[in-house]
Amino acid sequence: MQDAELAVQIERVFWDRNLGRGISGAREVWRLLKREGIDVARCTVERLMRQLGLRGIRRGKGFVTTRPDDSSTRAPDHVQREFRADRPNELWVVDFTYVPTWPGMAFTAFVTDVFSRRIVGWRTMSRMPTDLPLDALEMALWIRDTAGEDVTGVIQHSDAGSQYTALRYTDRLAEVGAIASIGSVGDSYDNALAETVVGLYKTECVKIDGPFRTADELELATLSWVHWFNENRLHSSIGYLTPIEKENEYYREIHPQQQPQLGELALH
Predict the structure, then answer these.
(1) Roughly what angle, to the nearest 10 degrees, separates helices 26-35 and 42-52?
(2) Contact, 182 vs 146, CB < 8 A?
(3) What is the CA radius of gyration of the chain?
(4) Rounded-to-integer distance, Cα 133 and Cα 182, Å
(5) For residue 241, what are the β-bridge partners?
(6) Which residues are within 8 A (CB) of 68 and not within 5 positions of it... i.e. 6 or more apart?
(7) Confidence class of residue 187 from pLDDT cuts 50, 70 and 90?
(8) How much is the pTM?
(9) What pLDDT digit, counting tens, does each position of 99-140 carry?
């Protein structure tokens, strides 16, 4: 394929909202092209992207949203910065962030499965009560229950923010047999994977689709981004698969003839 033809394909993949989304770097674009059967060297993709003025987006610095509640009982840290899992629903990490809108700040919380990097729960609200992370947790529980998956024993790791140590939240974890795990306050390494997801969200969704007039607009943009993140985004940490592909691969290996239907993320 000649450079001119390749350039057309590279631009198409880069800007496609279901593929490169206008934010993917040369490595991701190269792998997306390979998935479509377009055989091209990575260095060629890099060269043509430079010529076309196409650049992958880079993450900026994060923001601290954690506020501890010294009166709450803190669970021990069961993770100790070892963010690895051998199966789905072994370890979830949770975090939230804020996003400016015209009337004021809105907030989004996420629940991410460490094994597949899948965002299994999320919630966007115009305020930051305990209900924000609790609603994200409820979505994650619903997604897994709909797929017929047992979450008993899942470790749910967070920082020491008051939203995650609140009695309603910890009681809900206990009801479903989840094990709470809490890192320290303000230490990004103690919840590094969750903060990575937040950083990607700010870079790939908020920066690209914003500014937002309302929390409802932000919620719709988040819905679109989460769907892309789970269904189409290639993750280097799981062998350049999508999170859904990673989970499907796991279930095919343990149940060659039977695989649970993975639930689709829905808007609360």
Answers:
(1) 120
(2) no
(3) 19
(4) 14
(5) 235
(6) 160, 161, 162, 165, 185
(7) very low
(8) 0.79
(9) 999 988 899 999 999 999 999 999 999 876 668 889 999 999
